Amino acid sequence: xxxxxxxxxxxxxxxxxxxxxxxxxxxxxxxxxxxxxxxxxxxxxxxxxxxxxxxxxxxxxxxxxxxxxxxxxxxxxxxxxxxxxxxxxxxxxxxxxxxxxxxxxxxxxxxxxxxxxxxxxxxxxxxxxxxxxxxxxxxxxxxxxxxxxxxxxxxxxxxxxxxxxxxxxxxxxxxxxxxxxxxxxxxxxxxxxxxxxxxxxxxxxxxxxxxxxxxxxxxxxxxxxxxxxxxxxxxxxxxxxxxxxxxxxxxxxxxxxxxxxxxxxxxxxxxxxxxxxxxxxxxxxxxxxxxxxxxxxxxxxxxxxxxxxxxxxxxxxxxxxxxxxxxxxxxxxxxxxxxxxxxxxxxxxxxxxxxxxxxxxxxxxxxxxxxxxxxxxxxxxxxxxxxxxxxxxxxxxxxxxxxxxxxxxxx
Length: 411
Known about the structure:
The protein is mainly alpha-helical and 411 residues long. The protein has one domain (16-30, 58-382). It has 13 helices and 5 strands. Strand 2 (104-107) and strand 3 form a beta hairpin. Residues 1-8, 381-397 and 399-411 have low confidence and may be disordered.
């Protein structure tokens, strides 16, 4: 039995099977899509004789991620309270390594990868999880300062500002910055941040974001394209509108039920990043509106169950970690899907659990494992608790830290 506090013990029960099922379905859907488009992409983009190049690699990433998922589900979540500062340090060093000549890789105006022999790693993906764990510890220890501007908001802004500066300026990765900032603000609000402070920080973040866009020509070009994609211009394929216009063509050509699995036209070199950032457009093309709604519904259900776990978590740290992970998946899926529907500017971030890729998939599965471990100790699902006990541990406000009860976790 590992003690988290001095209250009566809550024994581990079953995990949230709905979360596990949804993640499994999303992984299976991603593998099906990779199997569908791998022969075409392998030949068109790589000239590779192995027509299953993308599919086989995705299986490897999924298997590695599943190992991390199982390990994270088995490790009691309080362990991450102790390891959060060390993990943040490791993630910070990895991000700094992008400045080392010969280690970093750049693509489409962004420097996101560290090349270690045959393996490439995205440090920003590690930073997402490490920062969420660290912020949960930081908020838990500063419960009395959360509602203070100088003792709560200002230190938070300095810390998040430094992380965003590294991601936006050094990595040139606006999408990851947006996901991280929104998830961190959601955690701060869940911890008890005042609404007027939240509004002020959001306004300041919007100004800083505008400056970050103005400093880089490729971001200005993406913003102009978003505001006026010119998809009706026959010359659009020659300029920056190519990506968004081809994505819209793919989504629109899918109709209600889609063209069918393996019948995508956009994958034949028309739509950039078809296996990665643009995978939702291929899903919409092959499975239509029904398939698109199913994917959106799965992510909605995943986030709903994640926030439900957060609400019923046994202590402040667990609640904030579950909130941060759920909001991370929420905002990343919204930005990715929104970009394919031309609702937000293109940012170049993957669709969780579905897009082709290594670091993002592995880290996302590890985070899902932590969320599942927390779900094993939710106080509202203890089957042998009496009605009186359940009333005693209920919390009427999601952000009311005064209603939280610290418990012992028994294994």
